[in-house]
Amino acid sequence: MKIMCQFCKSVYNIRIESLPHRKIVTVRCKKCGNLIRFVHPLENGADAVSAPSNHRVSSVEKGPPQAAPRHDPAKVRALKQKIRMCLMGFIPPIAHVVAKAQMVMSDPDASLRDLVEVIETDQGITTYALRVANSAYYGLSGRVTSIRHASVLLGNKIMGEIIAMAGARGFLGKMLRGYGLESEVLWRHSLAVGIGCKMLATRKAPDLEQDAFAAGLLHDAGMIMLDPYIFEKKELFDEIMEDGTCTFLQAERITLGLDHCEVCAEMFAEWGLPKGLLKPVAHHHRPGASAGGLGYAVHIADIMARRCGYGAGVDDMLYQADKRAMAFFDLEEEALAGLCGEIRDSVKKIVMEM
Ligand SMILES: [Fe+2]
Ligand SMILES: [Fe+2]
């Protein structure tokens, strides 16, 4: 039988007898290294060549492979309220720090003193920010010993970025028992998306640069918020994810009647995070829905992060780039591979110091 890699279009001849006896088979493309997934031909007689594309479900262009049950709207509202009440009492440093960092970054005349004061009261954030400032990525390797010194050397923009990163790390670095993600997995994914987003903005849409890093960094914070509720229904959630054709987003909707994008945008609004972050977060898996350029950037950066090894779960290969988002940044599929390499190198430079 023949299989085709959806990324580099390489075609391989594979002997059916050599395939493992499971419904969804995964093999790695020898040319580009991406995973090719397809239905075992003896399981349902699917056409082998087209099987991979049938099972790369786009949350944008195709519906969920399993119809979402109708959830009682009153129950969904009640669940949202429960999440809201639970999180209202817990405003993580992320909200305070990111809001302040964005303010300083948006005003070229603003003094860094305010921002420095905010984080110097938190030892954990300060230590992490110093490590990041000294990482190979920012090029100050070992030369900076205080936040004030780093801010003089790096300036408002970069310092805002580092501080947003330091403020978000504790929140995003947790283990997600509901989704089955080890600690740091979501953090590294978030970092990769933040870097990818900034990269796209710098090259193609400088007017988006201001919010790009923070929007990418925080886009999946809703998964942290939903995780306890997914964990309560873990058996159902795992069953939905089992055959490998469903994304986390679809499984959230089937299990809870809501998803991490909408919950996150609503909580960010409650926490007073900058308004510019709300739409990109809310629409990062459905960028057509008036997400704007920044929504497109987060969407593409999310896909690039998944392709370069910093994914956010077992559903990594099920997402496809939205055509409008690709056109907005004037990108072709082939160009993504080069950007992925840069993202991978950048994340490595930051995390290797931690
Ligand atoms: Fe997401
Ligand atoms: Fe993501």
Total discrete domains: 3
Distance between the termini: 46 Å
Judged by helices, strands and strand pairing, the structural class is mainly alpha
CATH architecture annotation name of the largest domain = Orthogonal Bundle
Main features:
354 residues, mainly alpha, Hypothetical protein af1432, 3 domains, two-stranded antiparallel sheet, two-stranded antiparallel ribbon, 17 helices, 4 strands, globular, binds fe (ii) ion
Summarize the structure in words.
There is one protein chain. This protein has 354 residues and is mainly alpha-helical. The chain contains 17 helices and four strands. The radius of gyration is 21 Å and the shape is globular. About 7% of the residues have low confidence. Bound molecules: fe (ii) ion (2 copies).
Provide a compact summary of the structure.
The protein is mainly α and 354 residues long. It has 17 helices and four strands. It has three domains: 2-54, no CATH class; 73-90 and 173-351, Hypothetical protein af1432; 107-171, no CATH class.
